[in-house]
Structures are given as C-alpha cells and as structure tokens.
Specification:
5 helices, alpha/beta, 180 residues
Length: 180
C-alpha cells in the first residue's frame, strides 16, 4: 500500500511512527477489491486484520484490537492499541462514510479519562477522495489535518495539573486507497 503523507500535530515524530508506516506499506492492496477484481463497496475489514497481524509481529503480543477505552457502558471501540509509553490509540478510516470527528473525540476522550495509560492518538485515513458529507470534495486526510485538527486545538492542547499536555502527539497517516 502507498503512504502519501504523515502529519504530526506537535512535530515530535515519535519512534513508533516509522514502524507503523512500514507495517501499513506491507498491507496488500487486493484487500480493497472483491475476488473478481471489482472494488469493495463496503468497509475494508481486512485492513484492521492485516495491520494488527503486522503490528503484533513488530511490537509484540501487547498490541490490542477493538479495545473499549472509555466507560464500560460506552459502545465505542478503538481499532488498535499500540503498547507504547504512554499507549497509542489508533483509528483506521476505511469506509465510504467516515465519521472522523467522532474518531478524534473518541481518542481525546480516552486520553483525558486515562492519561496515565494513553497519551498518543493516530488516525490512518485515505488521501484519495471518498464520500465525506461534511468535507465536500476533499480527502479524509485533508479534512482531518486542515479542518478537524484546528477545530479541536483547544482540546488537543489541554494540559494536566502539572502543565503537561495530556495528548503527547496526534499523528495522521495518509494512505492511497487503490479503489480511486
């Protein structure tokens, strides 16, 4: 798979970003297509599975998938959890109607509630256009980096009682969806 851009909110470039990008690049593009070669019209479920398998090989067995990081009664799950220090929450956008604003809020809320456990957020989003009602005709990657990140700046820059940022960094990785 092709990675087009990587955005780091605080420009820290944590050490886990390059191995994550390498794992994404290793994912075969055929997962975006039906067996007959036609583009999938639904969510690309194999993306999570393929990335999880590669991340587990690279980061070890503490990588988690579909984790509830907020209150138990809350039905929201985070796609992947990397065992960094503090842990990294990863959301993967691979559907036709993304809810990227909710993904950002889910990550921020989880870090706010458990700042001793979680500290990094990451969204993996297409750089190619997909149907995104709120964003008009721009890619999900552009929508996050140019509109949602600035909109959420007050929350992203929230500090704890010691004056340290709760969110260490927020990474957005842009991949090329081969379906066009």
């Amino acid at each position: 798979m092709t990675i087009k851009e990587v955005f780091s909110y605080r420009r820290l470039e944590p050490e886990w970003v390059k191995p994550l990008v390498t794992c994404i690049k290793e994912i075969p593009e055929h997962i975006f297509f039906e067996q007959d070669g036609s583009p999938l019209k639904e969510e690309v479920i194999q993306f999570d599975k393929q990335l999880f398998k590669r991340l587990t090989a690279k980061f070890g067995p503490d990588v988690k998938r579909n984790v509830r990081t907020m209150a138990r009664e809350n039905q929201f799950e985070t796609d992947l959890l990397l065992p960094t220090k503090p842990m990294t929450l990863i959301e993967i956008e691979k559907g036709k109607q993304p809810r990227l604003e909710l993904d950002i809020m889910k990550i921020i809320n989880s870090i706010y509630r458990s700042s001793s456990e979680y500290g990094y957020g990451c969204i993996i989003a297409p750089t190619t256009y997909i149907r995104l009602n709120l964003a008009g005709n721009r890619s999900p990657y552009r929508y996050v980096t140019e509109h949602l990140i600035p909109l959420n700046k007050p929350v992203l820059d929230f500090k704890n009682e010691n004056g340290c940022f709760l969110l260490k960094d927020f990474i957005v990785i842009g991949y090329v969806d081969p379906r066009g």
